[in-house]
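User: Can you fold this complex?
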Amino acid sequence: MNETPLWASESFWKKIAIWVTAGSFVILVILTMDSLSKTGAGSKRVPAYAVINKKIDYQFKTALHKSMPVIGDNEFLFGKEYSEEEARQLVDLGKKTTQTKNCMNCHTILGNGAYYAPDLTKAWLDQGWISGEMRENMMVKFLMDPANNARTFGSNRKMPNLAITEQEAKGIIAFLKWMSSIDTNGFPYNFKTIEAQE
Amino acid sequence: MNTSDLNGIIPKSNRLLDKARTYLDDFKAWVNLDSSNLSTGQQLAVKYFTVAVILFFAQLLFGMLAAIQFIYPGFLYEILDFNVNRMVHINAMIVWMLYGFIGSIYWLIEDESGTGIVGLKWANIAFWVLTGAVTLVVLVYLFIQIGPGKDSSLWFINEGREYIEAPRWADLGITAVMLVFFYNVVATFSKGQWSGIGGVLVLDLIALVGLYLAGMFYMTNITHEQYWWWWVIHLWVEATWEVLVGVIMAWSLMKLLGVRRKIVQTWLYIEVALMFGSGILGLGHHYFWIGMPEYWLSVGGFFSALEPIPLVAMVVHAVYDAGVHAFKTVNHPALAWVVAHAFGNFFGAGVWGFMHTLPQINMYTHGTQWSASHGHLSFFGAYATINIAFFYLAIQQWRGGVWMAAGAHHAWRWKWALGLLNAGVVGMTIALLIAGYEQSFIERAVEGSTWGGYFAAQNEPSFQRAMGWRLLFGGITLAGFILLVWDLLTIGKGETRKIPTINQS
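Assistant: Here's the predicted assembly.
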């Protein structure tokens, strides 16, 4: 009677702990290899950087019950067609700039970050840029001098001046355009793009 | 500048230094702590605790500034912008908790292994290196803030990735310090004796240090970058940190209540199995919307939904042990904070996490104040509480092992500090939850997450009221913190009754 049953013994749970941890980790490593191979730039889910040469939209697919990125015809950024390497460099500059300017501690990117300013996942497609023709110009101006081109939507919250150069601004815009083409499993839901408005 | 100016400055700065020294001496005399009550390892531990408390204050201070900016957006505009305050707020939190953990481990390994810390000299150097680096990083955050879009900014200013913003030079420094810490732990157990607690601790530290490396790389591909970034953040706070506090809790329960080693170690193994069994693949709940394949919706949803189970087990464990031992302990504040930890961990990390972890609801709550609500209650409930409990254990020893239970003087202070801190954090959590509900509904479900929708939700009266309540409860938290510090500095002062030795039963 006084003997500890197996299921309550220390050594039993020690073994369970080791096996469960090791097993979970092995599964995670396998899933990681699979996931990374399916999401490289140029994959079906994460398009190549040269996608910034194309028109991008985000449309609700009734059959799938979610919105999906839709890549259309040519729509050059800043009137220029970029090679894949040029596009990668521009997106890279933009991505790096979003980090060095600490964008993520006000905004969310792919829904991650702080909640003081809007999500940037589909910022390229936002109706706030009024029309496809005005968008690029408005974005450059806004990024370089946000205080004087403030878009507060009645909230009085203004983006501060972050000393963003014109080249960095163009990089950020390229990064945002590329990011809007990533298949995010339907997040955000029910998003109406600037294209839907037009 | 001519030499006569210099002649004036040197004596002036000397006078200033003398004054500062006098103040420091007065302060030490008032606190009246005797470090000869501590072993050399414990003396190192209390250094870590001291910095932890200072950083805890920084966390609250910058949190308050950010909370004010939600209500008055012009406050400190272009001086200390929201992103700076928020970065210092969350970084100070991560770092003070790590300081608390490291201190707690240095404190307990001597007792646990039965020998003095091996490589103590290196441990002391590592402490000063780490503290110097943290100071420098914070000064750069505050005074330089941002840099141009170049690699050099990532190396020397900030990496711009939530929670692990520290520039890369500091990443390398932190890793080096962690390796010294790891060496101390392994070498000490190897010289003394190993135990179940020691084994779990060492394996957990390998994972903890190893994971930090996953967050040090820059990638253009945001989907890949966020994938690895979550390896660090999630596998720290929802796996390895949880196991680390399991270790600290196991040891504390033996010390506080005299619970038998066999019981706490069996519980610890069960917790490790449940925590890693749910938490490692629960990582998938961060992969729903960052571009990763759809199977993460199922994997992440399922395993993260299991994450509360070990936390329930911990509540049962703490309450059962406390009950069996009829709450008889020699350190009431520490036991109270351990109980606060068990419940806070379960509600903050468990319930609040579960509420929005399934993809069907997370689609609407992701990136709203829901996350902030969950973050506040879980970090406080799971990690702040256990660190505070340990501060009380440490101060008791520092005072020379005096009585801190029934009939202790000025007990109202720790009780009110406990009450105010918990009420403050719970109040903020509820306010942020209301804001999160409102955002999920207006911004996400109705307006479809456009910028117009975002601001429509931010301008709603219910959201704005919630931000007001959050600020108020933030103030209550701060008041609780001030009382806590006062209590930690004075508790047990003038107490002559010593604690009896606790026997394990």
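The radius of gyration of chain B is 23 Å. The longest helix of chain B spans residues 222-257.
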